[in-house]
Amino acid sequence: MRQLLPVSGLLLVLLAGCSDAGRSQIRIVGSSTVYPFTTAVAEQFKRQSPQYAAPVVESTGTGGGIKLLCAGLGPQFPDIADASRRIKPGEVADCRRHGVTDLVEVQIGLDGLVIAQARGGVFAGLTARQVYMALAADPFGRGPNRARTWADVDPALPAVRIHVIGPPPTSGTRDSFDELYMQRGCETEPAMPALKLRDPAGFRRICAKVREDGAFVEGGENDNLIVQKIAADPHSIGVFGYSFLAENADRIRDVPLDGVLATYDNIASFRYPASRAMYLYVKAQHARAVPALRPFLAAYARESTWGREGLLARRGLVASPDTVRAANAQVATRFTLLDPATL
Predict the structure, then answer these.
(1) Is there a domain that residue 2 lies in?
(2) Predicted confidence band at 23 (pLDDT cuts at 50, 70, 90)?
(3) Which of 71, 141, 240, 324 is most enclosed, with most CB atoms within 10 A?
(4) Residue 239 sits in a domain of what CATH number?
């Protein structure tokens, strides 16, 4: 990683509009999973630092948020992208093509990508292999998916139609679902790890492509709507972040994954198979023109915010290990730049 470089005079001209009333705020876009956490920090920041305007936070999905962040420099472009996965090398390259060369990456905590059902739901548990076999367009490369009920996948499962409501392709949660459920389930078949090495594109087609016949329904970027839909239908399951499960425990419950419950401790220890990290990506080149940017990031990185007993833990975010929090607090306060070679 390298330290923040001086901002050029040209950039200051580009960002001059940030000082007027219409662009005095920090603008944040990105992940629907991270959205409630960043919104909570933004509200606290405004209360504790009234000299700054309240940050504007939008839920656009991780992919959409990073694309907006990388689109250029100036007051019309956002300052921060929330992300439920790590930024991709191709996205960093897109940033650089548009002059966004200095990004600060901060891991803000952990999350579990859960499968959940209504309180009266019929599922005792699922494995990643079962989820893959139910939702893959071409399970193990053996032809189109003909399963209509979960019992078609495994006779031990309920004989109810396969109906999973999950994230759209623009969402970082969808990328995590592909990796932590679909590909992991696919790799339980002995031939698939070898295919991954021999033909990565073929592996992704077989192991990550989701069927399009109604068994999997894209629920959009509003995870609360997915919660509402599965709470009303005991035969459906939904895919979203752990915080939405924790906040709606009176209406929904998790479906254990590979025999492991989605709990705070299981996610913190990575015992839960679908545990993942959450991130912020900050456009360091906006720091001098948007004075609130540095203090906002410092406020996010306080122990009282993202620690085990902090504000975000009470909202359902799982705290990163102590050493990880300490390292990322230094990155946040020093504005240490992301080294793309580490991706």
Answers:
(1) no
(2) low
(3) 240
(4) 3.40.190.10
Q: Report phi then psi at 183, rounded to 5.
A: -70, -40
For CA atoms 212, 213, 215, 219, the dihedral sign is positive
Q: Spell out the alpha helix ranges (H) of the chain.
A: 9-14, 35-48, 62-69, 89-97, 128-135, 150-153, 172-177, 184-186, 191-198, 200-208, 223-231, 242-247, 264-268, 293-300, 303-306, 311-314, 322-334
Q: Are the C-beta atoms of residues 320 and 313 closer than 8 Å to each other? A: no
Residues 187 and 263 in one domain: yes
Whether 181 and 270 map to the same domain: the answer is yes
DSSP state of 39: H
Q: Is the pLDDT of residue 269 over 50?
A: yes
Q: Is the pLDDT of residue 321 over 50?
A: yes
CB-CB contact of 111 with 276 (8 Å): yes
- Is the pTM above the cut of 0.70? yes
> Token pair 């080294």 is at which residue?
339
CA torsion 190-146-130-63 (nearest 10°) is 90
Residue 184 to residue 296: CA distance in whole angstroms: 37
Q: What is the mean pLDDT of the chain?
A: 92
For residue 179 the two structure tokens come to 């990796």
- The DSSP secondary-structure symbol of 33 reads T
From the list 78, 43, 85, the residue with the least C-alpha distance to 300 is: 43
